[in-house]
Amino acid sequence: MLKPPNLMNNQAVNCDSPVFNKSLLSADEALEFLLDASTAPEKKESVSLDNSLGRILASDIHSTINVPGFDNSAMDGYAIALNDNQLLQKNLSFDIVDRIPAGSTGNELNKGCAARIFTGAPIPKGANTVIMQEECEVSEDGTQITIVRAIKLNENIRPTGNDIVEDDVILNSGKQIQPQDISLASSVGVGELIVYKKIKVGVFFTGDELVEPGTPLSSGKIYNSNRYALVALLGQVGCEVINLGNIEDKFSTTCDALEALESQCDLIMTTGGVSVGEEDHVKPAVESLGELNFWKIRMKPGKPLAYGKVKQTPFIGLPGNPVSSFVTFCIFSLPFIKKMQGNNNYQSKIIKVKANFECKRAKPRLEYARARIDYSESTPVATLYPKQGSDVMSSIVWADGLVEIPENKTFESGELLNYYPLSELIR
């Protein structure tokens, strides 16, 4: 396991100081540590197909049948029993001796005969090809068809097991279930799926300056947007949330909240309270009940990101600024949670984009800048929101995603950078 440096005694200093920045974990080191610390769940449950959307499969799904279970017609048309001497012959006529709708089984066809057949209906014994109805000329009395073109064997016939063969693994454990997965499971007769139980995430929020939306603001107060953002993000990714809401800004109250959540949750998350101010009680409260493994990351926005344990329950402390909280959840907490859920696809999707901006002065910390993407060129082009402050939540609403601006590097417009689509970072 990656052993991060001891950062517990850092004091508030210039956050862009080279000496200070070298003492912090890089974003890559922090993510590696988090993913190494995240463990897949053990608890499983059975759910109906109707209740399985978005859940994580806890076991492979094997098919007990072939799909289709019989040779069937891919078209509305005519099943024909061709003689060997009729192969590749033109202007052939056949007597219509049967009619086979989907769900029924026709009679055996003699050579040189045809049966009206519909999509999905079983191919009758003796038939060896199907011609679509648009290519068949039907006699006036409806007893005979003529086909002008040459006919080949096995046209428009779906063979047994064409889609799925008995004993095939059709869905793998660790997959997040999508509508198409539900369709596939139902097609082989599976009515329930074994999934991992939802993880329980306990949250609370500190700060005597925070006011609930819908109430008037008095002097010095702000609305608590982090509470609603975090609860929404957790709900979006399928977590069961236990929300204690705003708690009093006291060390003892913070300890009580942590202990209450530790006994009933798989993960505890907070926003704010992990800095070094006299009113920041989350960090010392976590240390008194467990441990902090790292605190502060060499990145912007979101330097004061904390990870540790309250007794044996993992704890993630997000920064207090709204953009910092949102970005660190997307980049760090979401992969941690996905792996904890048993999701095999927990790594964030990264694509390359061209910068529609330059960087003349090297950044002392890795930056995740809010950007909008123009897809009109072969390589997508990223344009930055003009205000990149950690308090500017409107930048997240405006943006399509986050562009990674490397530390200690200058570049010109047109530089290829890593880009994280926001659509992938919140689900």
Based on the coordinates given, report the CATH architecture of the largest domain: 3-Layer(aba) Sandwich
Based on helices, strands and strand pairing, what is the structural class? alpha/beta
- Could you name the CATH homologous superfamily of the largest domain? MoaB/Mog-like domain
What's the average pLDDT?
Answer: 90
Strand proportion, as a percent range, falls in: 25-35%
Radius of gyration: 31 Å
Structure summarized in a few sentences:
Helices cover 20% and strands 27% of the residues. It has 427 residues and is an alpha/beta fold.
What is the element layout, followed by pairings?
Layout: H1 18-22, H2 27-37, E1 44-48, E2 61-62, E3 72-73, E4 77-80, E5 92-100, E6 113-117, E7 129-132, E8 137-138, E9 144-147, E10 157-158, E11 169-171, H3 179-187, E12 192-196, E13 200-205, E14 210-211, E15 222-223, H4 225-236, E16 240-246, H5 251-262, E17 267-271, H6 282-289, E18 290-295, E19 299-300, E20 306-310, E21 313-318, H7 322-340, E22 351-355, E23 366-374, E24 381-384, H8 394-398, E25 401-405, E26 416-421, H9 422-425
Parallel strand pairs: 5-6, 13-16, 13-17, 14-15, 17-21, 19-23, 22-24
Antiparallel strand pairs: 1-12, 2-11, 3-10, 4-6, 4-7, 5-9, 8-9, 18-20, 20-21, 22-26, 23-24, 23-25, 25-26
Question: Could you explain how this protein is built, in words?
Answer:
The chain has 4 domains: 18-42 and 198-340, MoaB/Mog-like domain (Molybdenum Cofactor Biosythetic Enzyme, Chain A, 3-Layer(aba) Sandwich), CATH 3.40.980.10; 44-66 and 165-196, Molybdopterin biosynthesis moea protein, domain 2 (Alpha-Beta Complex); 72-158, Molybdopterin biosynthesis moeA protein, domain 3 (Beta Complex), CATH 2.170.190.11; 351-425, MoeA, C-terminal, domain IV (Beta-clip). It has helices at 18-22, 27-37, 179-187, 225-236, 251-262, 282-289, 322-340, 394-398, 422-425; strands spanning 44-48, 61-62, 72-73, 77-80, 92-100, 113-117, 129-132, 137-138, 144-147, 157-158, 169-171, 192-196, 200-205, 210-211, 222-223, 240-246, 267-271, 290-295, 299-300, 306-310, 313-318, 351-355, 366-374, 381-384, 401-405, 416-421. It has a 6-stranded mixed sheet, with no helix packed on it. Strands 16-13-17-21-20-18 form a 6-stranded mixed sheet, sandwiched between helices. The protein has 9 helices and 26 strands. Residues 1-15 have low confidence and may be disordered. Helix 2 (27-37) packs parallel to helix 7, helix 4 (225-236) runs parallel beside helix 7 (322-340) and helix 5 (251-262) crosses helix 6. The chain has 427 residues and is α/β, with parallel strands linked by helices. The chain is elongated and about 90 Å long. The two termini are 28 Å apart.
